[in-house]
Structures are given as structure tokens and as C-alpha cells.
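Render Ribonuclease H in 3D.
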Amino acid sequence: MVAESSSPPGELPFVQLFTDGACRGNPGPGGWAYILRHPQSGKERVASGGAALTTNNQMELQAVIEGLSALKSRSEVEVITDSTYVAKGCAEWLPGWKRNGWRRRDGNHWRPIKNQELWQQLDALLHRHRVRFRHIRGHAGHPENERCDELAVAAALRYAVPADGE
């Protein structure tokens, strides 16, 4: 696995996780993809998948969940994503959601957060690894982001129902 490497005692192996999600309609058929790279060895692992009925945000979350789940040992991970939802959610919103019972304030009312099960899965993985997020602009020529986008769109298309006559 990519994350396994010989590193000095007490030091975690460092990996980069590039992720993206895509949806054909929102909701609609969707796809996720990741590239997991161990810069020291140059090894990479690429994976993608999808669902028949999902949202773009769910696929963005799923990409990070799948990438972190692929790590076989505790690692230092830099997640590179074009999703503000994922990056801000993990860096800013998650502690408050947990403190408030996975709810957010909406005016004078408390509402359950969207995608709670995915956020809880991601939260558990964030505690397993040492993770930091780097937000990048999507569709701006970043090679790994473009590759993840291509893979996520292809995965979404595998779940799309063809129109009559196709």
C-alpha cells in the first residue's frame, strides 16, 4: 500500500490524497475518485467508484473517505481538494456539529446536518490519521485534480441510465 514506508521511528509516513467528486444532475448518478501518492517513493494508488442516485457533496465526501480508508497504517495526509464543502467542513464546521449533536442552527431552530453518516465516517478517519486540507480551485489546470475529475465523471457515467433509444 502507498502509505507503508520506512520512516524514522516516531515519524508518520507522509502521503498526498487528491480527491474529487462529480454528479450528473444533483441529485443524480455520481462518481468519486482519488489519487493517493507517497512522494518519497513515488508510488501511487488510483481508485474511483460511484452511485446511481447521489449528490455532488456526497461524492466529494466519499472520495476523501475512500482515500483515507485505503491507508493501511496511521499516516500524515495532505488532502488536496477543490471542494470548499469538504475543506471548510473538516477544518471549521465539524467541531461545532459534533458539539451540537450533529446539528446546525437554522434561524431559531436546530436542523440535522446534511450527509451526517458520511461526516461521521470521515470524522473517525480524521482521528486515525494526522490530516490537513489544502483547497485548490477546480478546473484550473491542476494535473491531479483534472485526473480525479475525469475519473469521477467516468464513474458517474457508468451509473447513468441511458435515454430511450441509446
